[in-house]
Amino acid sequence: MDYEFNWLVLWDYRELLLKGLLITIKLSIISIVLSTIIGFIFGTMRTAKNKLLRMVSSVYVEFFLNTPLIIQLFFWYFALPMVLPEFIRGWLWSHNYEFISGVIGLTIYTSTFIAEVIRAGIQSIDDGQWEAGQSSGLTRFQCLIFIIIPQAIQVIIPPLCNQYLNLIKNSSLAMTVAVAELTYQAQAIEALTFRGFEAFTAATLIYIVLTLLVSLLMNRFEKWINRSRISIST
User: Which of 129, 139, 112 is nearest to 45 (CA)?
Assistant: First the structure.
């Protein structure tokens, strides 16, 4: 093997890796928050009694769920600005639209999976819980918030954690729309130094650490929820 490793190159270009890491974290956090909110809305709509709400949410979920993420990113970045008025397009390009389009793409794509997680969690609760809540005078929305969701959390948390991990890993695709996140910076280091092995090894390890931290936090949250449920029941 003729390749000579030079790990010191990572120290020389540490600022690029740090910049990429911070952008990846920012991109992931914003997208996680927004996709959770949107996913919760459309997930609950899919369990609604109203046929129109179910149809709208089903169209949203099925359309974006079955479209590749990279196509969605290209659409938000390249296609959408072309149909907007020129002054809006100019404003977007002057306000870091690369990052905005990355957030939009990741948020909408991930929200469809979260919507399915929420829907499955709600439907896992016995119908008797709905009937008991409504017979005590609660509206269907109040039953959802105060009875169904608290019980469904145990079912929801593990797959929800998986979607957060997928989002963090999928954030690497944002480099295709010029978001200078971690993978983008690793590629920049490779282009400057021809040290692709070192650059992408570092990026890989950083992604592993990020996802492990998220898994740890979600596991702790799940344990806290379980302890809270036990203390309430006793």
Answer: 112
Count of C-beta atoms within a 10 Å radius of residue 208: 10
Give residues with Cβ within 8 angstroms of 206, minimum separation 6.
17, 21, 182
DSSP state of 49: S
Q: Give DSSP secondary structure letters for 50-81.
A: -HHHHHHHHHHHHHHHTS-HHHHHHIIIIIGG
- CB-neighbour burial class of residue 11 (10 A; exposed 0-12, middle 13-18, buried 19+): exposed
CA angle 153, 155, 158 (to 5 degrees): 95
| Cβ partners under 8 Å of residue 74, min gap 6 | 176, 177
Q: Per-10-residue mean pLDDT for the chain, 234 residues long?
A: 85 96 98 97 93 96 96 96 92 94 98 96 89 85 87 90 96 96 96 94 96 93 77 56
pTM over 0.70: yes
Counting every residue, how long is the chain? 234
Q: CA-to-CA distance for 160 and 54, rounded, in angstroms?
A: 21
